[in-house]
Amino acid sequence: MILVDDGATMAFGMAIAGHVERGDLITLSGDLGAGKTTLARGLLRGLGLQEEAPSPSFAILLPYQPPLLRLPVAHVDLYRIEDVGELEELGLEEARADGLLLVEWPEHAAGVPVLQDALALRLDIVDGGRRLTADVPAAWERRWPPR
């Protein structure tokens, strides 16, 4: 699927939000500037966030709770993670159990069990926008593609 600009990327994130369930994991991969955070912002907006969502690049994890959103979300950026042992401190298993775990740069924690069975989205910059590809787990088959 081609997302022609930031607006289309944001809109696609908003569409996904209508299908998110408690316990879901969505991962976002792609080069710097490919639109991961834009898609995440659309998803958060679709879940009810009215304010602009900051990038979690420096905080690593930004939690959101109702009533700001319809369910808890942990928005995580693993770009700066150098040792997967650091992930234990983040409480990702609890975050996923309580709501949605939304992870940018999941490849920095490859093989970590909590990141298994994700709706894995990849954004690549192409002429005319961004190409979005998805690895859709069984839990998402009835919900994919979002409409």
From TrEMBL:
Zinc found in the keyword field: no
Signal peptide range: none
Presence of keyword Transmembrane helix: no
InterPro entries reported for this sequence: P-loop_NTPase, T6A_TsaE
Record field: transmembrane: none
SUPFAM superfamilies, per the entry: P-loop containing nucleoside triphosphate hydrolases
Keyword line: ATP-binding, Cytoplasm, Magnesium, Metal-binding, Nucleotide-binding, tRNA processing
Gene3D superfamilies noted in UniProt: P-loop containing nucleotide triphosphate hydrolases
Top-level taxon: Bacteria
This protein's name: tRNA threonylcarbamoyladenosine biosynthesis protein TsaE
Organism the protein comes from: Sphingomonas jejuensis
